[in-house]
Task: structure prediction
Amino acid sequence: MDTYVKKNYTKQLLKKFCLSLGFLLLTQWLFWFVDSDFFMVEGFGAYAGIIVGSIVYAIATTAIFLMPYAILMLIPTNFRIKKWYRFIANFFYIIGTLVSVMVNIIDIVYYRFTFRRMTSDIFDYLGVGGDFKELIPAFAKDFWPYVVLFVVIIVFLFIFNKRISAIPKKLKERRDYIRAALGSCGILAILILFICGGLLWKPINIESSTQYASVNNMALVVNTPFSIVKTFGKKQLQPVSYFNSEEELDNIFSPINIPDTNCCKILLPDSCKKSNVVIIVLESFSAEYMGCLNGGKESYTPFLDSLAKESLVFDGFSNGKRSIEAIPSVFAGIPSLMNDGFIASYYKNDKIKALPIILKDYGYYSAFFHGAYNGSMGFDVFAEKAGFCDYFGMNEFLEQSYATPNDRDNIWGIFDEPFLHFMAQKMNTFSQPFLTGIFTISSHHPYRLPEKYKGKFKKGMLPILEVVMYSDNALRLFFEEASKQNWYNNTLFIITGDHTAQGTSPANNNSFEAYKVPMIFYHPKNLQKGPAHKMMQQADVVPSVIDFLGIPAKSFAFGKSMFNPKNEPAHLSYSNGYYQLIRKSFLVKFNTKLVEVYDLEKDPLLKNNLIGKTENPIVHENENYLKAVIQQYNNRLISDRMFIDK
Result:
C-alpha cells in the first residue's frame, strides 16, 4: 500500500484546495503589482476592498476548477483507494490548477494590450484567424520571466501535491457509506457556496465585482479564469425594451443617418467632385504619441505632426481596445457593444450596408489592404461582407516581383514601408473614384524593425515608441510617392488608430484617455484646416465621409456625421459587462443602471464618482441616450436589422 496514507482525508482536501488557491492569488496579486500603472487605487478602503474581493473571487474560481477532482474523490466508493482512480482524479486536480494559473499569468501581459480581462471570446478570435501560433514564441521570448514563473509553479505544485496526497479509508460497513456520503454532500455544498461567493441570493459574476472596487479597478478583483468561465456560452444578446415605442426610441437615438449635402460646399472647392477616399487604420497608435495631439509633449510622429497642420484634426476616440473591433466600427459604423468583436460574434452573418456598398452605388471601386497573412483576424472575410471589391494581403504582396524575404517581419506579415509602397502601386491601377482601406501591422508587439532601420529612430520609455517612429516614416514615404500620382489632389485621406497602446503614465490609462486615437482628415484641396475642437469616434467615420463627399445617401451607423453641426459628438464603448458613454462633457458607465458618473471638465482623471451626488440633467439625458443605443444595438442585431429598413 502507498506510504503516504493519511487518516484525515478531509484535511488533505482542504490542503490541496489551499495550495491551488495560493498559486492563483500569487498570480492575481502579481498582476496588480506589475500592471499597477493601469489602475488608480487611493485610500485604505479601496486597497482593502480589492484584497478582500480578489480573495472571494479566487476562492470561487478555485472551487470551479477543482470541482471535477472533488466530485471524483468524494463519491462514496472504494474505487477511491485504487491507484488508477486516484491517478485520474489527480490529473483533473493538476490540470484544473495549472490552467487557472496559466491564463492568469498570460493576462499579466495580455491586459496591457486590451485593457480588460480575457474572456471566452478568445476562442472565437482564434477561430477567425488569430495569430497566436506565430506570436507565442515571440511572447515567450520577450516575457520569459513569466514562463519561468509558470515552470516554477508546476514544479512546486507537483512537490507539494505529492506530500499532501492521501488515500481515503476503505468503506466496509453500511454506516461507513452513509457517513462518507453525508460528509461528501457537506463538502460539495461548501464548494458550491464558495462558487456563489457566499450566502447570496444571486451568485457572483463579473459585474458584481463592483461591490469591492470601482469599474476601472474590476480587473484587480476578477481573475482571468473566472472571467473566461463566466462568459463562456454567453454568445447571444438579450432583447431590451427601455422605451416602448419606436418613435420615442428613434427620437433619442437612431442609427439611421440623413445626409447633409451642404457640408461638402464648405469643405471642398466645386472642382473636387467624387473625391477618392483612403482610410488608413494604424496599429496601436495612441494620440499621446503624437506631438500635435499630446499638448506639446515629446512626439514620435514628426510626419503626422506636419500633415496635421494641413488637415482637419478631430479629438479621435476608438470604440474598442482590440484590432478586431476597429474595422467594423470604421467601415460599417458598428462598434462592439458586447463581449465579442462583431467579426467573431454570433451575429457576424447579419446583413450590413457598409461604406464600400454605399459608395459602390455612386461608381466607386473599393479595395482593402492588410499586411498580415490572408485570413488574419477574419479581415478578408469581413472585407468581402462589407462590400470591398478586392482584398490584398500578404499573399498578394509576395506575388510581386519586387518582394523580398526582408520585407517580412516573420511574426505578423509585411513591414509597413514595403506594404504601403505596394498599396500605392496598386492604387495607380484603380479606376476613379475609389475607396481604399488599409490596416497597418508594424507597430504591434513584438515591435520588430527592418534591419536597415535598427538604431535609426529614437527610443522612448516604451518599446512601441521606436516602431511608431518607423510607421510614421513609412507613411511619409507613402505620401511622397502618392503625391506624384494623378489621383492624389482629389483624394480624402483619413488617418486613425485601431486602438490605443500602453500609456506613458497612469493618467493615460484611465477609461477616458485609454480610447484616444488620432482622427485626421486630410485633402490636398481641403478648405478647412486645423483643430476641429470636436470629438469623433470611429463609428462616426461612415456618415462623416458621406457628408464630406456630398453624397445624398442615407447610412446606418452607431455614430453621426461630425460635419453636420446639428449632431452632438458622443463616444461609445463596452468592456467587462459595462457600457461607457462620453457626451456633453460627462462620462457615464452603465450596466443595468448607472454605476459611475464623472464630470470631465472638472475631473479628467476620473477620481470623483458623482453617482448619487449630482442632479445635473445631462446625466439623466446621457443615461437615456445610452439606453436607446443599447436597445437599438441589441434588438437590431438579434432581428438582423443592422441596415436601413425599407
Q: What stands out?
A: The radius of gyration is 27 Å.
